[in-house]
Amino acid sequence: MMDFIGTANPLTRASRFTQVDEVKAFPYRGDTIVQNLNFFAAIVVFSLVMDMETPPHSVILNHQPCRAQHISRSWLESSNDRESFGLTCHRWLHIQNSSRRSLQFQCSFTQLNPTSLSRPSTTINTFHLYRLLCRFPQLQSLSLSGCIELPDSGLSLLLTYGLKLESLHLDFCYGITDHGFSFIAGGCPLLTIISLYRCNVTDIGLESLSQSCSTLKDVNLSFCSLISDHGIRALSQNSRHLRSVNISYCRNVTGVGFQGCSQTLAYLEADSCKLEPEGILAIVSGGGLEYLNISKLKSCIHGYVLTTIDVGFISKLRVLNFRLWTTIGDDAIAKIAEGCPLLEEWNLDYCFEIRISGWESIGSKCRNLERLHVNRCRNLSDQGLQALRDGCRRLRKLYLGRCRLISSISIEMFKYLRSDVQIMDEAT
């Protein structure tokens, strides 16, 4: 479709573009005439600039974006126009391919869940992946999430094509084992983000990955049932730039593997884990946490463990989720309220053992608190609500539902005196 051979006079030689076989190759979709003129103008501009930049009697071999690309891009208002331009001009198509930095397959659903996997989608195999990695050699982000039949051998391609990858998503890749993760370890030295939601990775694969990919920052291990404290210890010790870790529903993780973790660790999701008291102390040992979710604990931990924490380790916390920690009491709440002066959001839903002194501690100490969740706190009374009303001056949202000791009069008084606070029930 495109003549790459140069002639002496760039203004008189034949056009680089041949006649398009079908009109529908162009973006005629009921748009304005101006938009279509812009498309054709982009073709003309691209052709002229390429003519002026290419020496006579030469073949275009440069793989990098050129000035013509940037000039023409200003005339192409939509991604559809640019795709159509790529079908018209081989040179532009090659520039598009070599400029692509991210790739997501059709089966890489925006919101993955077991139900979404039932949707019909193209099965991605090793050959498909090979063709696409060859076509897009500059990829920095690759999502294979939802490729449930992709085998370990597919990831062997990353030994050649993964050198520039910084982000890799393998959610629901059931066919990938530790052998496949060894290819990631060997071929992706720049990897900083990896998501392994519901993968079959074990401690061995995680240790191999953390040893080779020392720049890891964000790691999602949620629902990885084969991971234990041994793998977490390898990750926290080998990856000293960790920023975010998700271990939700990892039932074999108690938390002790985080002991001595890097101060860069700021975000930790540990929903529905069997954390032990020593594990909670290890989780905060880095001293850099800003977000901590230890809701729905699957082990019976009394709140006294929090009273032994050095407040220096929790002073940066801004968001804290204790939902369904039914045994946490007033002493622990007082310790957190005093040790976390930056706290902005605190979820205490279903925390049954917090009584008046605990609510008074929150009211007097949590000066930056903006959002507080107290749904079904059965020992929150009118007096406790008053402590929150009078003390938390920056509070803007109070999630309050089914607290049996709070009267309707107390709620109306709260609304009257604190009109700046939006009270929301449990279902909101």
TrEMBL record:
Source taxonomy lineage? Eukaryota, Viridiplantae, Streptophyta, Embryophyta, Tracheophyta
InterPro entries reported for this sequence: Leu-rich_rpt, Leu-rich_rpt_Cys-con_subtyp, LRR_dom_sf
The protein depicted here goes by the name F-box/LRR-repeat protein 12
What are the BP-aspect GO terms? SCF-dependent proteasomal ubiquitin-dependent protein catabolic process
Please provide an example of a Pfam family that matches this protein in its UniProt record: LRR_6
Which domain of life does this protein belong to?
Answer: Eukaryota
One Gene Ontology CC term in the entry:
SCF ubiquitin ligase complex
Q: Where are the transmembrane segments?
A: none
